[in-house]
Write a structure and sequence with these properties.
The protein is built from twelve helices and 18 strands. By secondary structure, it is of the alpha+beta class. The strands form four sheets. Strands 6-10-11-18-17-16-13-12 form an eight-stranded mixed beta sheet, with helices on both faces. Helix 4 crosses helix 6 (240-261) and helix 4 (131-153) packs across helix 12 (410-418). The longest helix is centred in the first third of the chain and has 23 residues, at 131-153.
Length: 438
């Protein structure tokens, strides 16, 4: 048996080593077998010539099925003949797991066979063998690494809040109910209430990267029923502008790290990460209405923009300002949650915003109302019963600093950085209204 503890990655293989991975391709000529081995780092050509290797080894190599998992021991050297640059002369081979059938989808030669996204997602374990698809998630891992470093450097404390909640955070119509020992609870739409609880606890700065759930029956390239949210909350702020500046720094830092650390993956995807120009424009909603109307698009006044409005406004901002991102700020009170801080002298408008990136809403955030009596009044104004939110409202009875924060979709952030059109492509295991497998 081959000792897998001696295994090295293909890209590091030189001299007498053990490599292991998937059989990418087997080609047989009269007296020679070429086997292409693939691991997470790349490819290597294994060349066996009849007479140069034992007959038993030669026969074993020629009979191995594509996508079987094997280990090979031999001598690796640079080759001017092998297309891959690296060649291995085998001395021993072991089939670790034989492929009993051929793949249900074509996951590598996409230039020959175009497999639809739905089928690719059904066979995600095969789809992820495609180096292009795998590169997306290698980059996404680096994005999370960069986020973690950024928040810690800014003195944010990482927290992990419950995903089972007694009360919907946003809208009761968009939650997944769960039977909790005979009581109805919900999967959390966001960690919003708990982030604010921690402000009341005196934590001052917290962040969480974790799953959230939205029971929205959307079938669009931008919506998911489960996604990863990058949330933070910070105390002792003057206004939502303090939150906006953190987000600017955050996405700028992420893009710098991805550009520096993911050169190989970006090359595979043929994508160049654009540096973030700061300060990113702030476009108040009132100005957005005016800009859109001047272009012949009629937004619904005192409401959020629909996706078409966001795309059109993005085109205007890129044309007029030269930016692919902008903060859509000072949202009207009507579409915002009851806990949003209103502008004191203009209460029909709020200190809240969205970050729009290439026409896609990536982040939502703002300043929260921290005064108990005003919060109760706003709750009633939105048609909510304060008694139903008593567990939340009690956070504000014993003092809480002015605070604000935001939530950013990891999948949407990844899509924006890598210029991916369908957010499912940037989701490891997507969940939408129909998809529950794999």
């Amino acid at each position: 048996m081959i000792d897998l503890r001696r295994r090295v990655l293909v890209k590091e293989a030189r001299g007498d080593v053990v490599v292991a991975g998937f059989v990418h391709e087997v080609r047989e000529l009269k007296n020679i077998v070429f086997l292409i081995l693939r691991d997470s780092s790349g490819f290597i050509q294994i060349t066996a010539k009849r007479g140069s290797v034992p007959d038993e080894l030669f026969e074993s190599l020629r009979k191995i099925k594509r996508e079987s998992v094997i280990a090979v021991k031999g001598n690796v050297f640079q080759s001017s003949i092998a297309k891959l640059g690296l060649e291995m002369e085998p001395r021993d081979v072991e089939v670790l797991c034989e492929a009993v059938e051929q793949p249900a989808i074509e996951f590598y030669r996409t230039d020959i066979i175009k497999t639809g996204l739905d089928k690719r997602l059904r066979y995600r374990f095969l789809d992820l063998r495609n180096p292009k698809v795998a590169s997306i998630f290698k980059i996404q891992s680096t994005i999370c690494e960069a986020l973690d470093s950024f928040f810690r450097e800014k003195c944010f404390r990482e927290v992990h809040t419950s995903k089972l909640v007694a009360q919907a955070t946003e809208s009761g119509a968009n939650v997944f109910p769960v039977d909790y020992f005979g009581r109805k609870v919900f999967l959390a739409q966001s960690p919003q209430f708990y982030k604010q609880m921690l402000m009341a606890a005196g934590f001052e700065r917290v962040f969480e990267i974790g799953p959230v759930f939205r029971a929205e029956k959307h079938h669009t390239p931008r919506h998911l029923c489960e996604y990863v949210s990058i949330d933070f909350e910070m105390g002792y702020i003057e206004s939502d502008e303090d939150v906006i500046m953190i987000i600017e720094e955050m996405i700028s830092a992420v893009c710098q790290v991805v550009s520096r650390k993911c050169k190989e993956e970006l090359g595979i995807l043929n994508v160049e990460v654009e540096p973030i120009k700061t300060p990113i424009p702030r476009i108040p909603m009132r100005e957005a209405y005016r800009l859109l109307e001047a272009e012949g698009f009629k937004p619904e006044y005192m409401e959020d923009l629909n996706p078409e409005g966001e795309r059109r406004l993005s085109n205007i901002v890129e044309r007029e300002y030269g930016y692919t991102q902008f903060f859509l700020s000072e949202f009207p009170w009507k579409p915002r949650p009851f806990y949003t801080m209103r502008i004191e002298e203009e209460p029909e408008w709020t200190r809240s915003f969205d970050l729009i990136w290439n026409g896609l809403e990536v982040t939502t955030g703002g300043q929260r109302e921290h005064r108990y009596r005003k919060l109760v009044d706003q709750c009633i104004e939105k048609g909510l019963n304060p008694e139903d939110l008593s567990f939340y409202l009690e956070f504000f009875k014993c003092g809480i600093p002015p605070h604000g924060g935001s939530g950013t979709g990891l999948e949407r952030l990844t899509s924006s950085i890598l210029k991916i059109e369908n957010v499912r492509e940037a989701t490891l295991i997507p969940r939408d209204p129909e998809r529950i497998l794999p």
